[in-house]
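Self-study notes.
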Amino acid sequence: MKKIILASASPRRKELLEKAGVAFDIIPGTGEEIITASVPEEIVKELSCRKAYSVAEKMEEGMIIIGADTIVSYDGCVLGKPRDGEDAVKTLLKLQGNTHQVYTGVTVLRKEQGEYHPFTFAERTDVTFYPVSEEEIREYVKSGEPMDKAGSYGIQGTFGIYVKSICGDYNNVVGLPVARLLYEMKKQGIDLKG
């Protein structure tokens, strides 16, 4: 079996891969998240590729590295992780009562015969929230839960109760479109589950 590395420290991505039955080790991707692209799908593909390549020097022949990155986009603007509590409140006030997009880019990097072989894709999911009061948003932000999450919320957490609808892959919003990852790898002749 090929050795698989997840180039992410995200506990959510770790949990999703474990639930899918993938055996892997974790080496968090390093380096600055410098964005040169302007389209959300291209941004996440670029960032996931950087994460995968940032651990490539530790790669042995036959290994597979999975890099992933997630962003939230609303009204043409990318909403990253909040700088502080007030930034989280502002972000959630924008998103409440509206539909936004969650993009995750995934790069699978293989090393065979001394050469790197990357495969990259992006997944999009539309999420719509019910209207949420500023008081409810501030109460949520006080919990600290949104502080390490793109778009200032975790759909699997407390703020998930305000979701009106999802169009697309729920796991993509959590941080890894694991079903598509497994499907795309099967098309490449790679069974990540063994």
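Second protein, same conventions, sequence then structure:
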Amino acid sequence: MESTQTNNSTISSIRENRIQKLNDLTDKGINPYPYSYDKNISAAELQKKYADLPAGEETSDSYNVAGRIMAIRNTGMFIDLMDPSGKIQIFSHKENLDPDKLAIVKMLDVGDIVGFSGDVRRTPRGELSIKARDVKLLSKSLLPLPEKFHGLTDVEIRYRQRYVDMIMNPEVRDTFRKRSLIIQKIREYLCNQGFLEVETPMLHAQAGGASARPFETYHNALDMHMVLRIAPELHLKRLLVGGVSEKLFEMNRNFRNEGIDTRHNPEFTMIELYQAYVDYNDMMVLLENLVSTVAQEVLGTMVIEYQGQKIDLTPPWDRKTMLGAIKEFTGIDFNEYLTVDEAAAQAKKLGIEVEENDSWGKILDKIFEERVEPKLVQPTHILDYPRDISPLAKVHRDNPRLTERFETRINGWEISNAFSELTDPIDQRNRFEAQAREKAMGDEEACGIDEDFICALEHGMPPAGGMGIGIDRLVMLLTDSPSIRDVIAFPTMRPRA
């Protein structure tokens, strides 16, 4: 506690000192928060353009640079200026700066955003620099940055104050640039394949399209309860019914009222796509080609390393049926245990807890998650999920207890979920009714009956394959990030007292 109080006292003292500088600058007629600045080159562009400039050489090439001060040496003679592209050194000396400009330099602090004008030179020690002839304060920083040599290491503070995390840790900035590039390349790939990007509502009258507990809200003007979207599936299928395109996708934000851990955040990003006249086999090929292409274009390789483990994304990926994978890793063939009681008995032998209302499919899903999923490190499609846990997938053409659904696992994580989409409105109603019964028995993740969606199916939906891909987890893999909070700029956090 004493250490925290001392630290807070130090920060308060620094802030008061900087506010005094702020007032002194204002008294001199200097606006510490001006409206604009004519920056005409970045640090990286300078470093590239003058890469061959010899040590000790000076030029008459003048530029305006701007960025955040990260270090001040020799009472301001040498300043490290950082912009999003990199660092450039500023040389500020009385031979080049008027006394009033030099006085401004003396009042600068680490963290200030400043613009400098001057000529390019390389110091005798080989540091590319701007020999400043003019200086303009662009934003006075009132709070200090973390101490340089220790940086920002408190994980809680890093996630709560992501802006400081990005200032201090270049690898964090790089992660979010890669995230942006990954999303861009996904869009490019799908658009090049003829997919149309669309948008669907985030406020729904009822939850649907996934098994998840929703966030609830209330619309005052309409006097109705609403939920935040848990998945865009049912609206995207409506668009497929409407014929807006035979190939469509949405890069979407979803909200699920569930726990938080290294792989789950209540607000997350996924991409969901649908293609008419194909089935789940085509979705497997599409996923493999999409992910491997994005990896190659962003990272330059299809063989990535995640937390010390090499993962090969080169197609084709392994395929296992769910029942086959369970048999492989537990030795139990659930084709021989087809009743709920038989399945529950086998689960209990494995030490897996079973709830009273669990169906045959739910029991298998629990066994799979505990005994199989963690072992699937290399990309693996798990095929043919039980019908009772797949309310939106077509019945398997060879086994009515199963559906044509697959989930893809990489590093033991679910990366995608895909179906041969259910297009039979009568079957869909029966599935919804089964879900509604489970909801009535207390399953908060079960969905109800969406009458309008059934109405859409009764107008006719073409056979289709559909797929959702978790963007955050994919970015985790491609950036070697250990937690989902490392790839979400502003993750959900519990408020501090």
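Instructor comment on the second fold: The first helix runs from residue 2 to 27.
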